[in-house]
Amino acid sequence: MSEVPALAIQNLSKTYDNGFSALKDVSLTVPQGGFFALLGPNGAGKSTMIGIISSLFKPTTGSVHIFGTDLLENPSIAKQYLGVVPQEFNFNMFEKVEDILITQAGYFGIPAKEARPRAKRLLTALGLWDKRDSKSRELSGGMKRRLMIARALIHKPKLLILDEPTAGVDIELRRSMWEFMQQINIEENTTIILTTHYLEEAEQLCKRIAILDHGEIRINTEMKDLLAQLSVETFVFDLDTPLMRQLALTGVTDVFQPDNQTLEVTLTEGESLNGVFDQLSEQGITVASMRNKANRLEELFMRLVDKNIQSADSMKEAGL
């Protein structure tokens, strides 16, 4: 028998009272284990989907199963499997850090004597143990974000949803948070669904990805298969010395000079990066460094969204 998925959404729709259709017959399966990326532009329907999974909203149609348990029929059981880290801070700002975790554990029937060792482990791992007696309002933004993660994990959920967990967090802290989440994923086999605007995080962490746009799933595939579709990449060349003339290169899709010491070269599949270096060398131009202008997933994502916008505009023009 096949393994029960961590999350199974079938024909999920949500239409609000004002007539806005946020989700349109969405079906999505998230297998157990690993990281799963759920991406989409603002207004795509991600928050509505997470709200339904979290029991904040009721769907207009469709079903949600968490580890095989129907969320609508058995919400108390289904929610035992689920931990959610929302975008907004929603804990008591006047409650002490450790008490926030103990209180949360109590909602799941976990007595304080069992919750305290778990809280200590989580707060220590997330660098918050020395703040355990501080009121949460005294924490920095990054510390509050980590407290949200600790609270979501206190009852040992099998499925964790992270909604923009590193928004506004500095690079060093982001890395330490992801190291901790990878540890939780491996040691406790916690399935993690990630939404983020830092698309490099999704590319580095997630094996599977779904892209939601205008309330519909546009892509649902393996990350490696999606990235294989990338046929155009833009490279930024930092030059050793200023270039005092407009440069022409052959065998490339586009060349752009933002300033006299920088080149942006766009290559389509089949065009040679080595050929670019050869031409620059022949013209006496030395490259100090080179980098991708955007990560691969970001380029794919923007292309998909632009394509959908153009399609919608064409339909409008045609009166459809």
TrEMBL record:
Residues 7-239 form the ABC transporter domain. Pfam families: ABC_tran (PF00005). One of its GO terms (molecular function) is ATP hydrolysis activity. Keywords: ATP-binding, Nucleotide-binding, Transport. It comes from the Bacteria. This is ABC transporter, ATP-binding protein. It comes from Psychrobacter aquaticus CMS 56.
